[in-house]
Amino acid sequence: MSVVRVENLTKAYDVGGERVLALRDVTLSIERGVFLAVAGPSGSGKSTLLNLIGCIDVPTSGKVYIDEEDVTGKSPDELAGLRARTIGFIFQAFNLFPVLSAAENVEYPLLGFPELARHERQARVAQYLEMVGLAAYSRHRPNELSGGQRQRVAIARALATGPKVVLADEPTANLDHRTAAGILDLMRDINRTLGTTFVFSTHDKKIMAMADRLVRIEDGRVRALGMQSASGWVVIDSRGTRRHWTRRAHSA
C-alpha cells in the first residue's frame, strides 16, 4: 500500500511573463516504509515534487494522495492540519527557532495537538531527543549546537508528531562529510527500526547509494525508477527499458 501517490502531476509557474513547467505529468507511487531518494540536477523539479507531496504548494493539474486520501483541492487550513499530523520535514538549513531550546524546538509542532497533555508532550520530546542522541543537550539553543546536532534536533522534531512520511530536502548539504555520514546512518537506522518512510531530494551520492528506491528526475519528468536488491540495482527508464547494475558495476 502506498503512503504517497501522485497522478499526472504538473506544476507551472509564471516567470517574467513566461510559463515555466517545473513538473510535467509525473505519476509516482511511494510505498510505506521505503528509504527513497529523488535525484536530479538543479532545476530538475525534485524540490517542487517534495513541496507538492508535503502540501506546501498545490499542483497546476493532477492529483496528490497522502495515505490514500486525495488532498487536491483542500483549503489552506485543511492542508495545514494534514501537514501537522501526517508529514515531517527536514530542511537543508535546519529551520530551528533560535530563541528556543532543543527541547522547545521539538515540542513546538506538538503544541497544535490539543489531545496531548503537557507531560505527554514532554515525554515524547524526551523520547525523540534520546533517539537522536541529544538527551544531554535538551536545554541548549541552536547557536550552542554544532551543525550535525542541529540537524539531529530537526530530525527529532520531524518524528515527534508521528508522521506517515518524512520529507528531507538536501538534509546533508550544509554538513561536513563525517557529520553527514552520521546523520544518514541515523536516519537509515530510524527507517529500519520504526518503519518510517523517508523521501529525500538530493544530489548526494551517498544518499542515493543508501536508498532502497531511486527516482531520477530531469526537466520536470521522471526519467528512471530504481529498486535496490541484494545484488545491485534494477532500473527502469521512461521507455520501459529494464537494466540491472551489480553493486560492483554501480560503484565503478
Q: How would the blueprint of this fold be written?
A:
Layout: E1 2-15, E2 18-31, E3 35-39, H1 46-53, E4 61-66, E5 69-70, H2 76-86, E6 87-91, H3 102-107, H4 118-131, H5 147-160, E7 165-169, H6 177-194, E8 197-202, H7 205-210, E9 213-218, E10 221-228, E11 232-237, E12 242-246, H8 247-251
Parallel strand pairs: 3-8, 3-9, 6-7, 7-8
Antiparallel strand pairs: 1-2, 1-4, 4-5, 9-10, 10-11, 11-12
Helix pairs in contact: 4-5, 5-6
End-to-end C-alpha gap:
34 Å
The biggest beta sheet, please? 8 strands, mixed
Strand content: 25-35%
**Segments where pLDDT lies below 50 for 5+ residues?**
247-252
> How would you name the CATH homologous superfamily?
P-loop containing nucleotide triphosphate hydrolases
Number of DSSP helices? 8
Total domains, how many? 1
Regarding CATH, which class? Answer: Alpha Beta
Q: What structural category arises from helix and sheet content?
A: alpha/beta
Secondary-structure element order, N to C: EEEHEEHEHHHEHEHEEEEH
Report the C-alpha radius of gyration, rounded: 18 Å
Helical residue percent band: 25-40%
Mean pLDDT: 89
Shape: globular
